[in-house]
Amino acid sequence: MQLLVFLLRRLGWMLITVWVVFTLSFFLMRAIPGGPLNGERVLSESVRAQLEQRYNLDDPLFVQYTTHLWNTICFDFGPSYKLQDFTVNEVLAQGFPVSAALGILGMTFAILLGMTAGVVSAVRRTSIYDFSFMLLATLGIAIPSFVLASMAIVLFVFYFQIFPAAGWGELKQIVLPAMCLGAPFAGYIARLTRTGMLEILSNDFIRTAYAKGLSTQTVILRHALRGSILPVVSYLGPACAGILTGSLVLEKIFAIPGMGSHFIEAALQRDFTLGMGALLTYTVLLYVMNTLVDLSYCIIDPRVVLE
Amino acid sequence: MGQPILQVKNLAVEFVTDDGIVRAVNDISFDLYPGETLGIVGESGSGKSVTNLTVLGLIPQPPGRVVSGEALFAEQDLLKLSHRQFQTVRGKRIAMIFQDPMTALNPFLTIQDQLTEVSMLHLGHTRYQAIKHAVELLELVGIPAAASRITEYPHQFSGGMRQRVMIAMALSCEPDILIADEPTTALDVTIQAQILDLLKAMQDERGMAIIFITHDLGVVASICDRVMVMYGGRKVEQADTKTLFASARHPYTLGLLHSAPRWDQAQQTRLQAIQGQPPDMMNLPAGCAFVPRCQWKTDECSAAVPELISITTETSEGSHVFACIHADQIHQTGSTSSEELPHA
Amino acid sequence: MNQTPATTTDAQPDKLSKRTELQRLAEVMSEARTQQGVSLWSDGWKRLKHNRVSMISLWTLVVIVVLAIVTPALPLQSPIFQNVKQRELLPPEFKTFKLGIAEYDETLASKRQELKQMSTPDDRAALEAEIEGLEARHPINVYWNDPNFISQAMIEFRIFVFGDYCIPSICGTDKLGRDVLSRVCWGSRVSLACGLVATLVSLLIGVSYGAIAGYFGGRIDNIMMRIIDVAYSIPFIFIVIFIMSFLSAPAVSDTLRAYKINQITVFFLMIGAIYWLTMARVVRGQVLSLKNEQFIDAAKTIGTSQWGIIFKHLVPNVMGIVIVYLTLTIPAVIRFEAFLSFLGMGVQAPDISWGMLVNEGIQVITPIRIYWWMIIFSGFALALTLFSLNFLGDGVRDALDPKLKNR
């Protein structure tokens, strides 16, 4: 029951958020000179005709707004500006699964690698493991993903020739981009896990656990791990956002036909319908993921109450 | 009295900190006999907790360091045990309960999880047996509706209840020794009385020895058989309870006793606090650590650390030791300042 | 205060009545004075100094920043002058390179001499036009992109001291024949400036917003935090990308120039506008919890004014956590700027930033020939800066954390 109320309230705020984003972009599109609908740009004839028909550019602003809003609610994002013969829906539908696969793989890699490294570093503090893991973690965090990807390509594609350079379709082609995407997050998660673990280990209840005669392994895995996951779970929200933004560059570098590269192309080519459609999709995605993170936080920490 | 089950000899523990080396425990020795309750009294920083944590090997070894000493239990020196060897002692033969039950219990696990793991580990219970055992224990320590409350989390219990849960956890495997580190300090007075009664009842039932660490003389008077007073990381007095309260010899103990308000004093009496500050454990003075605060100090006191003097008491309950060179004179003349002492 | 010693009916006379109340208090005070307290900052600095890695990072950053500031005064080649025919994609080399300013000045001077000796007005006009043309195409205007007043002075200083001498292309050249080393140096100015300015913007907005919300509490706090909650869900990064696509349109940049707003400045402001949210939340949380601390009550009981409480007690206690978040925000901002420039939406030519340089490096990757110097040097500069910022940030955080005292 409490869960239902929580979800409903979240849904409400999501609608508000999406509406704000929509309104913002709508007015930006029309207000800024050189924007899509009042710039002196060359549009192909068919697109121009479609646009004029769709957007009723002669109608008063308010009418345009409401029609556009209604269309959006019905998930009709309109035709793409630049890609003739494609509607925005079609482009997004094609790109979304690709990006999703890349993102999920990257995130999984980040969590698994990061948490393992973090736990080992915390338990074997100041040892060689700790030092090297944390060094690698900082490397992953400090080096921007596109620099990392560039260097990775030079190394693994050209010198060592293990992976193919670009494209999408085979398993081989996913590995390098997913690893480059997940690397900064793996680093961050490793550090968070380590700090969280160290902090938990300094708590009194760990001392109690040892006083009961439990082995180190039991204390770490049973008593300490649950609490130390919390900072990682909190981080997963921003991490998801980061994976989404990270995929933008990586899809460009590795020529992966996902939603990210379409969004960037739309931005560069000033394809506003596509850009706005992608923007709204990202907004919804992020919101859903943040809600999931909040839910899982409650599951892990029994003291937290859903608000 | 018989043979002591725990013998601590010349224990010294220090901590390496950024600001210097802290000598928390300096040359402590004591014995613990089966079935008795030994009280350890002292202010914060006197080394009472550190002593007992060291016995159980719970001091993190950097920054802590056991400089010297031994702790003999069941024919082993506990200080020489490896971590794995300790696992057969901790929880099973020597159990410890801590000061703040809120932080001492794991907030992420249910009471059931935390109780059953002890008996499953040490007594080889199956899960079913362990749960049954745990419910019995909870009833024993006075938790109402134990069977249904056992699946709750620590934050759903009150302070007194949590401490009872801790006691249940400690008693789970019927240990020979229970170390209670200020278990009632964080609780209010009425709950305190209940917990003390509970501990006493458990001891009577099971015949275990209790080391009771506290700074509260009232608690000592109610449940301890013998008392050891610590100051500046050293033992400064030890006697059975009656003797201590009736005829304490060391100036610090005297100060403690006099500073407690008494119901038979007149209302306008000013309370006598012990003047001065607790010692800086990084820079202990060369001689007696109590010198800066002592009314009877002479130059001899600062020369060397006073040895423990032992006398037999009027009662037949064992010896009375104290570490003060002027103790006899203070006791006999009943004086309250060093000017009145006959000087050597 | 009543000074008479209490009379007692005790068996033991109260010896303390020998000394007066005042003397006793004076003793306590002098004891307290001899114990030296340690302020958070001096303790933090002391602990930071012990942290070797952090100190190395600190010095690295100092060197990088100083280099960035004095770049115009360094004997570098031109960062923007294109020379495709002769210098395209050269690997790192050590051949000497001359700016050619001295020569140019000589030519100009000789032309001026000629002018003095000219008599006919027609010839004079032609020669004057020629001289004007020469002045307009003077190397100083061509080699550097519209330097501001201070940079101009530094460039002139450099010419004065070093003359024509240039550091050779030890980092190679790019596909338009421009020297990579000088581009990396000039790029550092934009990347670092962005980090600083944008962070400052986010700091100002965030701290004020958070402090106001936290201090006043109640309804105001509620509304302000709701706004932040909604704002948090808005993917600002994507919005910025969306917006940047407009800003590069010619009509827009013309408008901006008309209002004398530098496109880079808008860029910095927008990045700052993304990052203030976290700062505001954190500051508000801290202020909320501090408000209820006992030391605030204590301050109130001795009569501290409301402003006194805010500025003498709340703000200094917030500074610790603000600094911690600063150390997280600065590298995040620099990285975001690089990210946008990499995508082609950030800094526009002829301005340079590290992100743009890495992008150029990626564009020339082919399986046939690897122009490694195009990526390595700019990538290394970016990575080194972010690395040092991260380590320094870690060190500062650890130094200010009371739980980590004495490890």
Annotate the secondary structure layout.
The complex is a heterotrimer of chains A (307), B (344) and C (407).
Chain A: H1 2-31, H2 45-55, H3 61-73, H4 88-123, H5 128-142, H6 145-159, H7 171-201, H8 204-211, H9 216-253, H10 259-269, H11 272-300
Chain B: E1 6-17, E2 20-32, E3 37-41, H1 48-55, E4 64-73, E5 76-77, H2 83-86, E6 94-97, H3 101-104, H4 111-122, H5 127-140, H6 146-149, H7 159-171, E7 177-181, H8 189-206, E8 209-214, H9 217-223, E9 226-231, E10 234-240, H10 241-247, H11 251-259, H12 299-303, E11 309-312, E12 319-322, H13 327-333
Parallel strand pairs in B: 3-8, 3-9, 6-7, 7-8
Antiparallel strand pairs in B: 1-2, 1-4, 4-5, 9-10, 10-12, 11-12
Helix pairs in contact in B: 4-5, 5-7, 7-8
Chain C: H1 21-34, H2 40-50, H3 52-70, H4 84-87, E1 97-98, H5 101-117, H6 121-136, H7 139-143, H8 149-162, E2 165-166, H9 180-216, H10 218-233, H11 236-247, H12 250-258, H13 263-291, H14 294-301, H15 306-343, H16 354-363, H17 372-400
Antiparallel strand pairs in C: 1-2
Helix pairs in contact in C: 2-17, 3-9, 3-17, 5-6, 9-10, 9-13, 9-15, 9-17, 11-13, 13-15, 14-15, 15-16, 15-17, 16-17
Number of helices of chain C: 17
Query: How many DSSP-defined strands of chain A?
Result: 0
Order of helices and strands of chain C: HHHHEHHHHEHHHHHHHHH
In angstroms, what separates the terminal alpha carbons of chain A?
13 Å
How many strands, which pairing sense, and closed or not: the largest β-sheet of chain C? 2 strands, antiparallel
Which class of secondary structure composition applies to the elements of chain A?
mainly alpha
Sheet-strand content of chain A, in percent, reads under 5%
The main pleated sheet of chain A reads as: none
- What Rg of chain C is obtained from the alpha carbons, in whole angstroms? 31 Å
Put simply, the count of helices of chain A is 11
Strand content of chain C: under 5%
Helical residue percent of chain A? Answer: over 70%
Oligomer: heterotrimer
Poorly predicted tracts of residues of chain A = none
